[in-house]
Amino acid sequence: MRSMICVLAFSLGLGLSGCDSAPGRPALGSQVLPPNQVLNFEHLYRQNCTGCHGSADASGAAVSLNSEVYLTIADDATIRRVTTEGVPGTPMPAFGQSSGGMLTQEQINAIVTGIRARRAKPTALEISPPPYAAATLGDPKRGAEVYRTYCFSCHGEAGYGGSKAGSIVDRSYLALVSDQYLRTIVIAGRPEIGAPDWRGNIPGKPMSQQDVSDVVAWLSAQRPKILTRAYSNANADTEGAQ
What we know:
Layout: H1 2-17, H2 41-48, H3 50-53, H4 68-73, H5 76-85, H6 105-119, H7 140-150, H8 152-155, H9 171-176, H10 179-188, H11 209-221, H12 225-228
């Protein structure tokens, strides 16, 4: 009787140990993680960021998140805040659960860390760019002169488009972007579509911090009046649809 019990116990052990390799049974480690536990940067970036900011192989509608200039002027706290909270009234949504989105703080941290580690170029810029946020409000009257100096050759008379670039004062466009987004684009440019950064409009004559603030103020003044207050510098200190 004791021998039979030992044989049965041994057989049962073999049967249970073989279940892991039974046909149709998922292999160990292949279980699908719940969405809120996914921390892989490439997966998170592809699912949440590529649609607007593009991938390593293609540009998107918004500023590239591997832009050397953008990643110089925007620190981790800025990128984290914008990813978490979004920018109300623009195409940049809030991704953080604390702001009504789907991502946990750990997932947002994984995105920020991944952008910085895998997309930022290690080379330093030869000259320091204007700061991400404006220290003071710009002057739209001076901004009109800045526009004629730095932007006219591409965007044409009064910003309505030229031979090299389209309108920069289109009402629909200005209704979708914040002043901070305009500032970011003026500084970082969109080199992937031929738009220079703050250094490249006039060779050897980079835009100053005040030039950037003033031309943004001029652009903001072209925005439909009903939206002006919502998109003022005082209320739009975060990155737009980047």
